[in-house]
Amino acid sequence: MNLLAPYSWIKEFVKTDLPADEFARRISLSGPSVERINHLSRGFEKIVVGKVLKIQKHPNADKLRVAIVDVGKEELSIVCGGSNLAEGMKVAVARVGAAVRWHGEGDPVELAATEIRGVKSFGMICAANEIGLFDFFPHAEREILDLSWSDAQPGMNVASALGLDDVVFDIEVTTNRVDAFSMKGLAREASAILGAKFQVPNSKSQIPSPKFQVPTITVQALKLCPRYQAAVIEGVKVGESPWWLRRRLIEAGHRPINNIVDVTNYVMLELGQPMHAFDAGSFQEGSIVVRTAERGETIRALDGKDYELAPEMLVIADAKRPVAIAGVIGGEDSGVTAKTGKIVLESATFDSASVRKTSRSLGIQTDASLRFDKGLSTESTSEAIVRAIEIIIQIAGGRQVGSIVDVRSEPHRKRSVSFRPQAASEQIGVSIPAARQKKILESLGFSVGGAGKAWRVAVPWWRERDIEAGERDLVEEVARIYGYHNLPSVLPEGPIPLRERPADIEWENEMKTILSGAGLTEVYTYSFVSEKLAQAAAQPQISSLRLQNPLTFDFEFMRTVLTPSLLEVVKNNPEADGAIEIFEISRVYLPRKGDIPDEPLHCAAALAGASPNGELFTLAKGILESLFDRFGICADIEPIEGDDSEPTLGHPGRRTSIQVAGKEIGFLGEVHPKTLSDLGIEQRVAVFEFDVARAMAAARPRVVHDVPAFPAARRDISFVVERRTRHAELHKAIRSASPLLVGAELFDTFTGKGIPERKKSMSYHLVFRSSEKTLSSEEVDAAMKKIEAALKKSFDGDIRA
Description:
Blueprint: E1 2-6, H1 7-10, H2 20-30, E2 33-39, E3 47-57, E4 65-70, E5 75-80, E6 90-94, E7 99-100, E8 109-110, E9 114-116, E10 119-121, E11 124-125, H3 158-161, E12 167-172, H4 183-194, E13 216-219, E14 227-234, H5 243-251, H6 259-271, E15 276-279, E16 287-292, E17 298-300, E18 306-308, E19 314-317, E20 322-325, E21 329-330, E22 342-349, H7 352-362, H8 367-372, H9 381-396, E23 399-408, E24 415-419, H10 421-428, H11 434-443, E25 447-449, E26 455-459, H12 471-482, H13 503-517, E27 521-522, E28 528-529, H14 531-536, E29 545-546, E30 557-558, H15 563-571, E31 580-587, E32 601-609, H16 615-631, E33 636-639, E34 655-660, E35 663-670, H17 673-679, E36 684-691, H18 692-696, E37 713-722, H19 727-735, E38 741-750, E39 759-768, H20 777-795, E40 798-799
Parallel strand pairs: 13-16, 27-31
Antiparallel strand pairs: 1-12, 2-12, 3-4, 3-6, 4-5, 6-11, 7-8, 9-10, 14-22, 14-23, 15-22, 16-19, 17-18, 19-20, 20-21, 24-26, 25-26, 28-30, 29-30, 31-32, 32-36, 33-34, 34-35, 35-36, 37-39, 37-40, 38-39
């Protein structure tokens, strides 16, 4: 988050005379980082205030005139074409040698004395855009800058006359420090860092507190709006803000609108609390209701666009309709205009997650939503509304009607943290006296109580959101204000300690190498999934963890399996022409008792494309078996029986369980057609996924054997069995039929011409060997007959010639 902060505004809250560059350097060392320094007065050299004494016609040009201008110690003759030029007017005069932009365009050019249509001109009467002030003073073409409202004297530098002899810092504030995202917050930081006095300007007026309350406010959603304050001011005159207010807003990057709206923006920048002003006359039945939107409700916002609201979105409404989207943007119908005479001023706290979700869903980001979605304290509203009322009455007139209405969910409770100064010194690595630590904490607004080894430190309300880790957070505060640059630099001595890499990292790296070598592409997907993807992977015994504050609805649940994320990749890459082979090795999140979920490492792969005869399933199975074989994992792949009418990740007839020692560690199969249809995937997809740690628990070290002393005998066998017969069952029967058989590899499966219906032909390469002698043909033939007999007995297999 970046904030444009005028130095003069910060100095209203902290007493310092440091040069701007030195102030920025010291603040950046221990607090928010100053990224850029803009000296506003630079560029106004030799540009002064002048007073037009006399205007004469130009002898050779109808649209030009010759003005005699008082610029302090002399009078200049200047040719000017300004349409609004008048005698007695105060103007901005660029003297010879000043840098200006002709008609506000191009790079600055140095002004020289020149002759214009035969008349000498010794300077230039400037329009605002010609000296970089168009944002401050918008104007029509050929209009010059009119400074008659100013009390500046002729000859005075324009920057000084307009109060632009200031410095504006572009400051980066980290997202956890929303308290520093304001002039007062920055000043509080500067006070602690510089050791300067923090000061709060005295209020210039007293806010009346009548006994009755106006308006009537009902907060129906107290969890989403823990505090709502409002006040009514009548008799206001809406118009342009005074120059000091407009200048401050523009310097801070805000466009002035009118004096009421400008005050709400001014207070937001000054104190960090967003505010909103409503036209009180736009409320139907004069009541305010803070509630969630009703299904189908719409609102036309201040940006002129119509938005359809979802039921979970928080709105500010009158008796019949929404008038603002809470914490995001106001409604056009309730906005303050020149006709407004009575306003309702709002200062509230809204749930950060609610504002963030609404802002992202509607595609609206405002200065208010930027602050609310970081989390604001309920205690920030009071000071802001009092300050806004004070300034509005000062510049727009009117009077407060009734007291400030204050509706809150519960009383504020201060938090306190245990803190040990000795432990802090040990963690920082420097002995910092306890008195110094106490002074640092108190300078930041913390209240320190107790004595001895342990203190009790009360957290100020403006730091409630970022002091969450207890003592460690306070140690960090002490260290940064003490100054990280003050900590001694000590080179480490002795040997560098080495630590063995965790086993799961070694497994992960080797698996990635194997799967990449098999032609698969590694992908990285988000750990969060949408409700739709979570349902696609629904497992009856496991429920997905839902985030309390998801960034979007697409990242609402923590995934329990990787496969849905891979299916999302398949869906989003239709240009791959069906040839998609991907894998991911990452963690999943399984709920358990307590706050932290289990995070087992999973390995998953997805193969997408045409598969008329289950080729994808076979290929996925082969890759999985090859992976397991490289690690020496003995796993069984067992079919899953069940009701095919219930869509799951498994395709009817092609869903299996990966088991090790009788316990399931994952699954292999084709994705159910309905699941693919629901996700918008047109290809067939085969997947496998397993728990890496549970698989590796069954891994066996590789055994290296001597080179066989005797040659092997090789034979092929083909036989016909029922189509539903599984390779694993056949392979087991073949291997157990003869002790001489040392290898059996399936090399062909065939159905079609010559093969009975509902049957298939399967062919295997067989390898026979003895460790004691060379096998004779008779011995191999006898072993083959045993295998044939085993196939006939167990599977009614008919041997093919």
